[in-house]
């Protein structure tokens, strides 16, 4: 489990506890020879919080100018996750963390999965960093992300 995934799960669960919401965020244990469909799952009877979130981190400090489908996803990952969302009825998102180097605050953005599917289907190479910054930002406060508004239904 990456630090970003751990922080996101903890942030969701803190959010739910603070608001006394019946929901739980978790990461399924990954086994050596089995693939994992998605990084973070959120279960709730409230459809606003019945989610599947794929997490990616890129280092803009090392010159990364985009999140590339060919580099950051396996070949079958996007259609496999899209199928999972269709079958499960979950709302899907891509959460992208931008690591900006030592001493600089990390930033994270939330992309609706429908936008990921649209760009991938139209043979776009990925998401330039500037485009990612146009999506909802997960504000980082201390070691956690403020998840409340970023995942609300449209």
| Annotation field: number of helices | 5
Number of strands: 9
Structural class: alpha+beta
What pattern of helices and strands is seen along the backbone?
HEEEEHHEEHEHEE
Biggest β-sheet: strands ordered side by side in the sheet? 1-2-3-5-6-8-9
Instruction: Assign an overall shape.
Output: globular
**Percent helix range:** 25-40%
Mean pLDDT comes to 88
For the termini, the CA-CA separation is 29 Å
Main sheet attributes: strand count, strand direction, barrel closure: 7 strands, mixed
β content, as a range? 25-35%
**Radius of gyration based on Cα positions:** 15 Å
- Uncertain runs are none
In words, what does this structure look like?
The structure is a single chain. With about 150 residues, this protein is of the alpha+beta class. Helix content is about 30%, strand content about 30%. The chain contains 5 helices and 9 strands; from the N terminus they run H-E-E-E-E-H-H-E-E-H-E-H-E-E. A 7-stranded mixed beta sheet has the order 1-2-3-5-6-8-9. The protein has a two-stranded antiparallel ribbon with strand order 4-7. The mean pLDDT is about 90.
